[in-house]
Design a protein that fits this description.
This protein is of the alpha/beta class and 699 residues long. The chain is built from 20 helices and 26 strands.
């Protein structure tokens, strides 16, 4: 009876609070009490659904009246209390106002319908079967609809919606040199660390960070992003929330410097000074690996000894095609590109003997932007079909006799910006009518020397494993016949005269860096390709980390450094151990005493991301795993001391420690010291630098 009377107190108050909730100002204690709303709401929801079903199916007279009434009263009281707490919690949060109002009045409706079940006598429903069914069904629907609105407040408008395909591509498909600072670094950071609370339909603080327009708009108190990310972790307003993924030091620095420069969404990377700390940080930033990388279909089937087919850049779907060795050319090679013709943006057919049928094929490459037909033995009338290429920007026709009218028919309706022409007796004055008529087009009259000498593609080192346990075979390949492959294994740079010529796969049995380069008469030599192979003759039975790496860069624990998997350049790919606040210390154990002569640490240096060289490595040994004695200590601090403000290092580097031959031990302890204070010339001055280690080799 007491609980039933309590409903006459709570429910009228609940109605008044809903009516005047906009003017309601509650204290911190009631706001704190409101946190119980999501804790206790599930029980009255389930109980309400059961009661609604009970009324709908058959309001059984056989159920003991007292038990039935008590359950109805308890449910009604809980529904009213949950609605009351919901009003309290709504005053301390940032929620979608429209959904909040609907949910609030829906909660009141659930409470009053539950109260109505208590007030109406059982006989009232028994005497009216249709009303009973409608009431029971209606009560179930009200609970489902309006509690779902509550789910949308906390989980976004898409809560319980059907799954949608997520676009995981963070930045446009274009080279870094064309990206803005926002596209290169800021947007990936926001999408990875901030849109959990400020993305899509989940808009805490009315702040959304999923588009340029919404970032400009800011939240209900303006854009407090910079202020919130610098609050202490203990502050409840700190962003991101403590339980979420936190910004790394480099991410925090990028956002800070970008905001301090006005948060310019259109500022391009190339517009920044190369020494500017924001340029260094943003250009080196690599989005975390849990974002799905872009997969590109292989182009191997289109490559041969006479044609190279390559993507414009990693992640791009645009393709560049180069033909060479014209004496072996067949139209079949061009026809073979049909499946990828809409992706081809650059086609170089210089010195290839072509016919009109070849031009007809080229004219179907609808997205072609640059075409080189120098010395292709074509006539101007043969290439009239090129007028169909509406995106063609650059056309090279050296060696072709030009007729102005026929040339105009090709260039007048397209997007041509540059035409390269040369032929005996052709002068720029001969093109005056076209030059005057098409001032936006650059007409160059002269041999296209820039494209007449092609640069060789890089060779490939066809050995996936970089770990030498006994010996390893290293083949080097190049797709073009008649080239000379030069290589070195002594850290020198390969040249065309003094370096050894590759004739058969290399046999390696010790730590070796292979450098290779390709040469061919009449061609520009290729860039150098290098790969380091590491000797690892000892295998530890266990590794125990005495100091723990940063939780973001914990890899696979101690096994990370002995799993023979190199982390490469991406320090966020889960294959590195990263330390900044403490030295890296670990113990390596063998089942039997083992003599060690050499230890090599494979490390990453990326000064733009606050990752500096290892400062020193100390090796100790023990017979019992308790008492250790020093064996060797090597200082590498001179590497860092040579760095200056102009330094921008991003490379893998090995740190080697020679141990004097002596006794054998079952336990070895290693202490790898990081730089405790980054130099003053660096934007992270005074803070500890990171060290990253992905593999340790023992010999």
């Amino acid at each position: 009876m007491v609980l039933e009377n309590l409903l006459w107190v709570i429910n009228p108050c609940l109605l008044l609070l809903c009516l005047f909730s906009g003017k309601l100002n509650i204290g911190p204690w009631l706001s704190w009490l409101g946190q119980l709303h999501p804790v206790i709401l599930h029980f009255p929801i389930v109980l309400g659904l059961v009661i609604g079903l009970y009324i709908f199916v058959n309001y059984k007279p056989s159920v003991e009246a007292a038990i039935e009434k008590n359950l109805f009263v308890i449910h009604a009281l809980l529904a009213s209390v949950v609605a009351l707490l919901g009003i309290f919690i709504s005053k301390g949060g940032n929620y979608d106002k429209t959904i909040l109002v609907i949910h609030q009045w829906g909660g009141l409706g659930i409470a009053y319908l539950a109260w109505l079940v208590v007030l109406l006598p059982k006989s009232y429903f028994i005497a009216r079967p249709l009303l009973r069914k409608l009431f029971g069904l209606g009560y179930i629907l009200v609970i489902i609809i309006f509690t779902h609105k509550g789910g949308q407040l906390t989980h976004g408008k898409e809560a319980l919606s059907l799954p949608k395909k997520i676009n995981q591509q963070l930045v446009p498909n274009k080279p870094d040199s064309l990206l803005t600072v926002y596209e290169k670094a800021v947007q990936p950071i926001l999408l990875n660390k901030c849109v959990t609370c400020h993305g899509g339909d989940k808009i805490k603080g009315d702040l959304q960070l999923t588009s340029i327009e919404l970032i400009k708009k800011g939240g209900k108190h303006g854009n407090q992003l910079l202020e919130r990310i610098h609050l202490p972790m203990t502050d409840e307003k700190h962003m991101p929330p403590v339980d979420n993924k936190q910004l790394t030091k480099e991410e925090l620095a990028i956002i800070t410097k970008w905001m301090q420069l006005g948060g310019d969404l259109n500022k391009s990377l190339k517009a920044l000074d190369k020494k500017d700390s924001l340029f260094i940080l943003a250009s080196q930033y690599i989005a975390p690996v849990f974002i799905k990388s872009i997969e590109q279909p292989s182009l191997d089937e289109y490559n041969s000894n006479y044609v190279t087919v390559r993507y414009d850049f990693h992640g791009s779907d645009k393709i560049n095609v180069n033909f060479f060795q014209g004496s072996f050319y067949k139209t079949d090679y061009l026809q073979k590109l049909d499946k990828i013709k809409d992706q081809i943006i650059t086609l170089n057919m210089q010195n290839i003997p072509l016919q009109k049928k070849d031009v007809d094929i080229i004219s179907s490459f609808a997205n072609l932007e640059k075409l080189n037909l120098n010395y292709s033995k074509l006539k101007i009338e043969d290439i009239q079909g090129l007028s169909a290429l509406k995106k063609l920007k650059s056309l090279s026709l050296a060696g072709m006799n030009i007729d102005n009218n026929k040339l105009e028919a090709i260039i007048k309706s397209g997007a041509i910006q540059k035409v390269q022409l040369w032929a005996n007796g052709l002068f720029k004055k001969d093109l005056s009518p076209l030059i005057i008529k098409y001032p936006a087009i650059q007409f160059n009259v002269g041999d296209n020397l820039e494209d007449s000498i092609m640069k060789l593609n890089k060779p490939t080192i066809q050995q996936d494993s970089t770990i030498i346990t006994d010996n390893i075979t290293v083949p080097i390949k190049h797709f073009l016949n008649g080239v000379t492959i030069k290589y070195t294994i002594d850290d020198s740079e390969p040249d065309s005269i003094n370096s050894p010529t590759y004739t058969s796969p290399l046999q390696l049995n010790k730590n070796t860096t292979v450098k290779t380069k390709v040469f061919k008469k009449g061609w520009i030599s290729s860039d150098i390709v290098q790969q380091t192979f590491y000797k690892s003759s000892l295998s530890a039975d266990s590794i125990v980390l005495l100091t723990q790496p940063d939780p973001k860069y914990i890899g696979n624990g101690g096994n990370t450094i002995i799993d023979h998997e190199l982390g490469e350049m991406n320090f966020g790919n889960g294959k590195w151990l990263g330390y900044d606040k403490t030295n890296m210390e670990f113990i390596m154990q063998f089942k039997t005493a083992t003599q060690m002569n050499e230890v090599i640490f494979n490390s990453l240096i990326n000064t733009g991301s606050y990752i500096f060289p290892i400062q020193s490595i100390q090796v100790e040994a023990s017979m019992d795993g308790k008492t250790y004695k020093p064996l060797q200590s090597v200082d590498f601090s001179s590497i860092t001391k040579a760095y200056t403000k102009e330094t921008n290092i991003n490379q893998l580097q090995s740190f080697k420690v020679k141990v004097d031959k002596g006794s054998a031990y079952p336990f070895y302890k290693f202490t790898i010291r990081n730089l405790k204070q980054i130099p003053n010339w660096h934007p992270g001055k005074g803070t500890p630098a990171w060290i990253f280690v992905d593999e340790v080799f023992f010999n």
